[in-house]
Amino acid sequence: MRVIGLTGGIASGKSTVTALLRRLGARVIDADAIAREVVEPGRLAWEEIVAWLGREVLLADGSLDRRRLGELVFADGKARAALEGITHPRIKAAAKEALAAAERDGCAVAVLDVPLLYEAGWDKDVDEVWVVYVDEATQRKRLMARDGLTAGQAAARMAAQLSLAEKAGRADIVIDNSGDPESTAGQVAAAWRRAAGDR
Fold it and tell me: What is the CATH number of the domain that holds 175?
């Protein structure tokens, strides 16, 4: 089975590309969805995070307060690394199991959607990498609008990842999401046809 690693940057439009791929019939394994599952109340990662940061990072229902957690870790490289040390091994194990299940199902090509693909070294585990790209100014503007952030908060979140320019420079395929939706859809369809062997 061929594995495509799909990545981008925060607010680059990767979710849009993932939705397009699913409509084209792609089997997508979403590392963000797995990340939410591994920190559900009562799971080991959740217990470790609460033991480390205290109950102040929890909402009333016991789930993690993602906004509060983001404020704590995005501004502190050591804290971010500690959080990733708790979550990443569990996310990776679950993703590998999902890929194995896809292969057992006879899937010829699967898409592994990982926001921090390069940062976490997952690019070594895939056959090719697709990067969803937008220019930095557009990325910042979309992020501020989407999450209600100040320019400084948006910059801190963007700085926690490799720049999209650097990711695009290392990619096998770049999906430029700076234009209109039709342009993005056309690029995704063409890339998927090539990957799936429908030339």
Answer: 3.40.50.300
Which structural domain, as residue segments, surrounds residue 52? 2-196
- Percentage of residues in the chain with pLDDT exceeding 70? 99
Alpha-carbon separation of residue 183 from 17, 64, 84, 121 (angstroms): 11, 37, 35, 30
Q: How far apart are CA 169 and CA 133, in angstroms?
A: 10
Summarised one tens digit per residue, pLDDT across range 73-93 is: 877 889 989 999 999 999 999
Residues contacting 45, CB < 8 A, separation 6+: 38, 39, 86, 87, 90
Neighbouring residues of 187: CB distance < 8 A, sequence distance ≥ 6:
175, 176
Question: Which two tokens mark 25?
Answer: 């019939």
pTM of the model: 0.86
Backbone angles phi, psi at 152, to 5 degrees: -65, -40
Q: Do 2 and 12 form a contact (C-beta atoms < 8 A)?
A: no
The β-bridge partners of 129 are 5
Q: Which two tokens stand for residue 164?
A: 């999209």
Instruction: Name the strand (E) or helix (H) holding 90.
Output: helix 77-104
How many domains in the chain? 1
Sheet with 128-133, side-by-side order of all strands: 27-30, 109-113, 2-7, 128-133, 173-176
Euclidean distance between CA atoms 134 and 93, whole angstroms? 30
CA pair distance 72, 140, nearest whole angstrom: 20
